[in-house]
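The pair is listed for reference:
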Amino acid sequence: MPKRRTACLAVVLLFASKNTALASLFTVDQWSVGVGTRGEFPYFDGDSSNIVSNPFVESFQAMDRASSATASFDFSWNDSSGDFLIDGSLRCVAQNLPPYPGAIGSELCAASAGIYFTTTADLLMSVDAAFDYNLAGPNLFAFIDFNVYPVTTNKPVDPIFASSMHDDTYTHYPAAGTLRITGQAIVPAGQTYLFSLSQILIADRNTGAIAMGDGYYHFTLQTIPEPATSALLILATLLFSRSQRYRCR
């Protein structure tokens, strides 16, 4: 076998062995996925599911008097590659009961998920999330976050990753755009972690406002390359770049 073909085959086998072993390095233990809506105390309603399935496709609705929050989730993952993708949408309808305009107040609508992982090796977590929002009137608010916490039973702990973005129309409107989160963190071995994520819309009930958004969370859990492995990957990349006339067969 020619040397260039040998190099191609070695890299293919290297990636195959890493992906095959990855499935045993973490488990998805449990989760809670759903939607909630909240006005002033004591008005609150929520709808959720804790049934773990892959894929998971479901819609939820919560009602607070004349207001409502509706969310949909399309969630799937690949054990062998450690790749997770959650597509979702959120619609918030904020209005008071007759007679209008009624009392001034805001409605908070949230689509959220809490996913519990246990790791058996140090893993590199990478996240890319986006939320496209449309705030068509005054006094509206859009928010997205992604957090990773070690799970403890007796005290709160700092997250190993935390990021959030927001926009509002309290001083200007309309507003539309994309809220974006990207980043990486090391997830140490031998621990259970809570991956917490949410999309939040807040609307003024006095204006009968409707706020909408949709987006995705894409995150991966990967083994951390050893120095020798990293060197091999760099070498393989150089070999490929210098031999574009040849193809792996």
